Amino acid sequence: MIQTQDFDSFLVLDFEATCDRPVQLQTQEIIEFPVIKLNGQTFEIESVFQTYVKPSVNPVLTPFCTQLTGIMQETVDNGVPFETALQMFIEWMRAQNLIAPDSYEPLSRFAFITFGNWDLQKMLVDQCNLIGTLPPEFMQSWINLKKSFAKMNNFWPNSLSDAMNALRLPITGRLHSGVDDCENIAAAAKKLAESGHVFKITNKIRVKNSNF
Ligand code: AMP
Ligand code: MG
Ligand code: MG
């Protein structure tokens, strides 16, 4: 039995970004923007949004980045600028009847789920900064699945594979592929709900109104 939830849908989001090792890039940029929409009661996948994004500060991927994410240079070369990606995502939100046709007003109860706070607290804010804007209001609060997991399992998961193993779930696809990570995070969320967890917003950022 899946625990009744406070939301009509969950939006599982997992960005991939430009990166390097051993020294991280000064400016990381989003290269994959995937979101999986889950039914808020059954946790079934209702729709998938995905686009690759062409980075502008560091347009050439490091070999480390391609090795980590599986994302090829050609893929980002054919990607869209971030501004377009965000606009496409907003249109998808509208097509899903999640937000109003002419504003960002929510039309139902939805919540983003991410694994950690990096995606919406750091990466999206930095990336929006680069184009001189702020995240839309509806992306300024989220559920950190690490927190939900820790509440149910009494330990803080360091990695997604940590959490999947503890939940006895198989890892599908490729770790660090954004859309595959979303699928695994979605499976973990469903398992937590089956164990009786009721998801609550865990984190918010407070910024001025977005003009995007
Ligand atoms: P993830 O969702 O775990 O795949 O990570 C999101 C992003 O964080 C990746 O696209 C990288 O930009 C960065 N990242 C993750 N793991 C590492 C790592 N071990 N070293 C450097 N950057 C990383
Ligand atoms: Mg991630
Ligand atoms: Mg990922």
From TrEMBL:
Residue ranges occupied by any Exonuclease domain in the UniProt entry: 9-198
SUPFAM superfamilies in the cross-refs: Ribonuclease H-like
Entries under SMART domains matching the protein: EXOIII
Keywords: Exonuclease, Hydrolase, Nuclease
One term of GO molecular function: 3'-5'-RNA exonuclease activity
Tagged with keyword Hydrolase: yes
Record flagged with keyword Cell inner membrane: no
Pfam families cross-referenced by the UniProt entry: RNase_T
PANTHER family listed in its UniProt record: 3'-5' EXONUCLEASE ERI1-RELATED (PTHR23044), 3'-5' EXORIBONUCLEASE 1-RELATED (PTHR23044:SF61)
Protein name: ERI1 exoribonuclease 3-like protein
Lineage, top ranks: Eukaryota, Metazoa, Ecdysozoa, Arthropoda, Chelicerata
